[in-house]
């Protein structure tokens, strides 16, 4: 990720400044304190000329159970004296005392007379406080922690902040940690920075000048360079000032990027360098606005026959506005259908790139199911079949080969769709650089990678759209899976000793294929009779052994295409309940009815893999359960936790259980 990259010098200065100002995030309580004085309607007319008694009455009335909670929250303590409440709510002490006595008489508030100290008050029902939203800001870290955020708050935050983590506790409270990164500000969907700041202020308890200043600065950065199509047809790079074009462009762009200046702030661009220019300026901290006229492609006659869901409509709208982007949603969240909706909205010839032949087939089926397109308008282009039609579905593998360059050139594609965008092989990436003049849509369930290709995806394809997974779970379209890490002991001392004395990859393999996992898989399957289950493995021999012990098929990269399809079909139809699957099953193959996933090994892999596996069961139908088996006392424990953290960051709750020997 690009948190600290390139040209963030100015923001660093700001960070230091706010640190020096003593607003350090470490003392969280301090930050909250500021916010709570603003309890509504308190004590406003105390000095009105209508008589002291009236004023006193009004002040007294303004102290309600609700505002008492505000005062406690502001104090950061479970009890408060009348004096503290009075100060927080800006009323006289006698009014506060009278109101609290009244609340105590109603039974809403309890009181304790502490010897030689003033009376303290506390709420009788803490639950009421526990269900309230609480927002804490750490301005210097640009972090916002929200307890029990409302739907409104989450929707606002999702527009300009990144959900880093959610933590569940036994009592069911949930803290959401958001961070505002530069790229979040750059990609925020507002017409101007004031819109963004209004949204920010609507969720934060108080104004944070440094934070706002930093956001303004980032916003400015994102609006300093612009590419547009000149009326004579060539592309122009425009900078906000002469010196910017001079210094930033000169320092960061390759010599042949700009052909010639056409004014003090504009230069004629070498079209073959456009992708490189965008990437270089992004890395320098100046994302480029791309206002070029995009090729629409030959128009196609297509209508949607399925109604998009509201959030899908939102994705498509954002896409059309930005003309490029990546739909980021968990498996089953309707990215494919939203992409088909986008295709219909763009209405131009479309090239869809997918990682496997199976997916090409599924795309064709989905296109036929959700649009008025007929089979003659859709072509598949891969090892098995090579038809270029108005809507063409090709595999990355074929599209990446030099001898298939014609695929990109024979038609005026108006839209290019990259399915499983985190999977794009580099030859296709470099070819995509030549395709900058099209609408580009990526789809990804898991944009996080161990390598930092995320930037590459977002600069070459477009900004993420729809990354607020939690809201999706809440809307009920995707089921939040239960994820459980089960720590399985070694079968016996011999197995443990073999692990301890091995090293490197062998050690990792021993932990992964701990034979005790087989018994655990059996137990889990037996506990969920009738549920369709996929068991994922890393090693072929382990897969074979588990399959043999359970008397079920094992599907790996070595399984022939036809056989694989046959088994998957049987699984879909419900004729098979359990399949053991090696890595091939991770992506690109649709297993719609999996209700239970058991990850037996593969924990050394990337976070992306963890999310894909867990994601396999995040389907709208059936209940969703994911078990991750990790060998106790091995490096797998840590791997499991790391992978699952990724899920936790997406708002998914993870449980841990230790299996007894
Ligand atoms: N607007 C809609 N109306 C009705 N059904 C929908 C709609 N959107 C999606 N679905 C259905 O929900 C399921 C999942 O949708 P889709 O395949 O688009 O998800 P996805 O995010 O692309 O999943 P994956 O990442 O696994 O490919 C499909 O069965 C699809 O037909």
UniProtKB/TrEMBL annotation:
It catalyses: ATP + H2O = ADP + phosphate + H(+); Couples ATP hydrolysis with the unwinding of duplex DNA by translocating in the 3'-5' direction. InterPro entries: ATP-dep_DNA_Helicase, ERCC3_RAD25_C, Helicase/UvrB_N, Helicase_ATP-bd, Helicase_C-like, Helicase_Rad25_arc, P-loop_NTPase. Residues 22-40 have a biased composition (Gly residues). Residues 520-661 form the Helicase C-terminal domain. Gene3D superfamilies: P-loop containing nucleotide triphosphate hydrolases. Residues 1-61 are annotated as: Disordered. Residues 41-60 have a biased composition (Acidic residues). The keyword Nucleotide-binding applies. Its EC number is 5.6.2.4. It is an enzyme of class 5 (isomerase). One of its GO terms (molecular function) is DNA binding. Belongs to the helicase family. RAD25/XPB subfamily. This is Putative DNA 3'-5' helicase Rad25. The lineage of its organism: Archaea, Methanobacteriati, Methanobacteriota, Stenosarchaea group, Halobacteria.
